[in-house]
Hints:
The chain is an alpha+beta fold. About 40% of the residues lie in helices and about 20% in strands. It is built from 18 helices and 21 strands. The strands form eight sheets. Strands 4, 5, 6, 7, 10 and 11 form a six-stranded antiparallel sheet that branches. The chain has a three-stranded antiparallel sheet with strand order 3-2-12. Helix 16 packs antiparallel against helix 17.
Amino acid sequence: MPIYTQTGRLRDIEPDxxxxxxxxxxxxxxxxxxxxxxxxxxxxxRAAYVSDMAFYSGDQWPSGIIEERRRFxxxxxxxxxxxQFCHQVMNEQRQARPQIQINPKxxxxxxxxxxxxxxLTRHIEVASDAEIAYDTxxxxxxxxxxxxxxxxxxxxDDESMDQEIRIRRILNPCTVYFDPTCQExxxxxxxxAFIVHDLKKEEYxxxxxxxxxxxxxxxxxxxxDEREWFEGGGIRIAEYFPVEKQTRKLVQLDDGSxxxxxxxxxxxxxxxxxxxxxxxxxxxxxVRWAKINAREILEESQWLGRWIPIIPVLGEExxxxxxxxxxxxxxxxxxxxxxxxxxxxALVEAxxxxxxxxWVAEEGQLEGHEEVWETSNRRNxxxxxxxxxxxxxxxxxxxxxxxxxxxxxxxxxxAVAQADNxxxxxxxxxxxxxxxxxxxxxxxxxxLLQKQGGIANFGYIDNLSRAIxxxxxxxxxxxxxxxxxPGRVVxxxxxxxxxxxVTLNQPFEQNPGSxxxxxxxxxxxxxxxxxxxxxxxxxxxxxxxxxxxxxxQSAPQLAALIMDLVVRNMDWPGANEIADRIxxxxxxxxxxxxEAPGQQNIPPEVQQKLEQLLQQxxxxxxxxxxxxxxxxxxxxxxxxxxxxAGIQAETQLVIAQLKAESAEGIELLRQEIxxxxxxxxxxxxxxxxxxxxxxxQQEPLAA
Length: 703
């Protein structure tokens, strides 16, 4: 395990004089006492953790039973089902990763700065491979009941004095010792914590050659109260995080703001209520860091944050008889798993390793043929000779007979099935969640059972969310103190994993020539931290594409307006370039966040004139639409007249044809046809039909 060193050396403990030596001894004596208390208080938790980890890894048979079975050459099978159940919970967490959300709370906080803080947090997570720290802690939580990860500060590179915040995993959470009196589920109220490291003597001497402890030959001569610090002839060193609380007076000013009395401006006016200044005492936390052994302070510095930078991830937490207990999925499934191993082993013995039916023979019948009969269960002898004997009355005794016994295969099989059900019951994970087809045939029923398995173990993911929320608080508190250089350029990561460089703690012009000045000051304002649990950004992108394509199918007119967003979220090469081209075809009002070429940095007076022209254009467009509608209405009216007149003409021609059946009506038919043709010609004029053809509607045809 790496041993981290914090920067920013602290030297208010000086061992150069008698008082300094006394303070160092008091500091170390307090540390040793705290370590002893933490070790004794968590002894049962740590023992249970080690037992669960060993059981999960396959050490599932009691040692006494193993020795007994080995002595008689009997099997002891381990059919380890627990990894399958634990992976179900752990992989569900990897699919629904908690995401830190930072929101402005007050005191000058802005949405833009909150966005920068959240992007900086993502950058810290990406640069730290924080998912490894989360996954390791969650794995330890699910299997053994608790896990941990930590926050450290490191130099950006070997040629820089700038520091970076990093999130690191703690592979073995048993090396972490917390204040046992803390009450919060994230241990944010702990007054101290340790991370211990056991080094060999050679490693210790190479790292700290000037240490007094490095020259001691017998590490057990220190004293009984220090025996916890020495294991197997090595030297135990610890990173010690004590919290010091300082009482400070908070003063309210007449403008409503508050400030500590030792930071009052010269012209400050203190608010008064009932003749007394409005003040109150505040406990301010200060976290120190020291690397120590049982006798010395090897290194020390001031931790810049308010909280101890170690974040626990707890499993199921119970208080039994005043003692804290932490358990994971394995704890309550041990009995079921052992029962499963026993029953599967018994089934194998009953079927494959059951002894052959023995022979029952009278004494003396096998005399002279012992070798044949001893191998009769292993070799297929054609003849089994035996010696005939008689009883006391002279009667011949029967030949040797087999003593058959039927193994209880059915009963053992039923017991195996019951053990399997017990495993599912104790873990809360059933066949549908494990990918097995159950009796439920409908997809809805299977989905509900899968959801039930997730709900049964959702508490573990929820506890991880609490831990990550506390991590967010630590990062928001620590970032203004680490990234505090004026003009420092940092990288932020957006939700779509694209990167952007931003300048902190220094005013800058957002767009050159615009006159808009902005500043991202991380030290101004207060921010809340929340955590969202759900699919990651990549899963959400895929869901977005699928949902929008369904929307386009039902409303095709929207395709041209949103297709650039759909293409940008597709996972294939060139998607962004195609989306950019599609976006250029959108109306100007949908060109979000971008200005057309040649229109950047438009002066205000030109912008006002442009808006007036756009308004005039809108008015003219409305008038043109009205005129177009009037012309369209007139055209439709004329077309309707022509259709009506044509129908009337056809009707009159049919009637005239009927009249032509008689010789007397031929002349009348000719007159009617001429009249119809004349009226059709008049329909192409703009005058009403009644005016063009007087009496056209009143002139009936002769029957």
